[in-house]
Write a structure and sequence with these properties.
Elements: H1 2-27, H2 34-51, H3 56-80, H4 85-104, E1 108-110, H5 127-151, H6 153-163, H7 165-170, H8 175-201, E2 203-205, H9 212-230, H10 235-258, H11 266-288
Antiparallel strand pairs: 1-2
Helix pairs in contact: 1-5, 1-8, 1-9, 1-10, 2-3, 2-4, 2-8, 3-4, 3-8, 5-6, 5-10, 6-8, 9-10, 9-11
Length: 289
């Protein structure tokens, strides 16, 4: 049981990244690979500042700013230099690897003897329940703020840009600026996941972000499937379902481990699972026709 609680906890930590990928993939239809780099960037900054005895809560705005800068750079390369979003993300992600390694100073930093955000609550005797409570409160607060932003005039304009760029351009909305801001918000949320995961797993590794975009994409695809199945229109409930998709994804991976799958094959299982999620709608359409 505790193994599955750990999976739920990891899903909570990664759900912030899922919200970010929801913005890029479902609102702007942009495949943003910057995620791999900005996720690690958030973890790297967290490790460096925690080992320098910074309070965990004081690190949050720095992590958000760093992730936003990474996303903004991808947006600027895409919109101003007219480079495909996928390639722009790959370029920034590649550059961030060197940036992260320079900031961290080495490939791996343990965080066993530092004060983390998960040590701020001691309501339960079992630490995993305290961790889950902190993670749940933290993510619900982030989701509530994001839902509020997306329901404002600015958020509606941003969502409209993703739906019909020609219409918003005719209304005088700067589509390029909206894309840059959207990528900035998405990668700030992704960096926040790196911040949480680094503290939860008590270490930061320079390679921890490799392939993490697949995990986030799988969570969003699960959420998107549920949104379509339940015909959810409210942006608040859409975000809530995406959060649920992040937890479901981690539970599925935990289940594969409990039935005896080799942990070395976990990345392969992840890729196959995401492929199945993507292919199900296509198979259903073909069978219906």
């Amino acid at each position: 049981m505790e193994f599955y609680l750990t999976a739920i906890m990891l899903g909570l930590c990664l759900s912030s990244m899922s919200l970010g990928i929801f913005i890029t993939m479902k609102i702007f239809s942009i495949p943003d690979i910057t995620t791999d780099g900005s996720y690690t960037l958030g973890a790297v900054i967290t490790a460096v500042l925690l080992t320098a005895h910074w309070p965990a809560f004081a690190i949050i705005p720095i992590v958000l700013l760093a992730g936003a800068l990474a996303g903004s750079l991808t947006g600027i390369i895409h919109t101003q230099l007219k480079i495909e979003a996928l390639l722009a993300g790959i370029l920034v992600m590649t550059g961030l690897y060197s940036v992260n390694l320079t900031i961290l100073g080495r490939s791996n930093v343990p965080l066993l003897n530092v004060s983390s955000i998960f040590q701020s609550v001691h309501l339960f005797s079992n630490s995993i329940y305290n961790d889950a409570l902190i993670g749940l409160i933290f993510i619900l607060l982030i989701a509530a703020i994001l839902a509020y932003v997306l329901k404002t005039d600015f958020g509606i304009a941003m969502r409209a840009t993703g739906n019909s760029a020609s219409m918003t351009r005719a209304l005088g909305i700067n589509n390029n600026a909206m894309k840059i801001i959207g990528l900035a918000i998405a990668n700030a949320l992704t960096a926040l996941s790196g911040y949480l995961v680094a503290q939860y797993q008590n270490f930061t590794d320079i390679n921890m972000g490799i392939g993490i975009v697949i995990t986030g994409l799988g969570s969003v695809l699960i959420g998107d499937a549920l949104i379509k199945w339940l015909k959810i229109r409210s942006i608040i409930w859409q975000l809530a379902v995406v959060l649920g998709g992040s937890i479901i994804f981690q539970l599925v991976l935990a289940f594969t481990l409990t039935i005896g799958i080799d942990p070395n094959l976990l990345k392969l299982v992840t890729a196959v699972f995401v492929l199945l999620i993507v292919s199900i709608p296509v198979i259903r359409r073909r069978s219906a026709s």
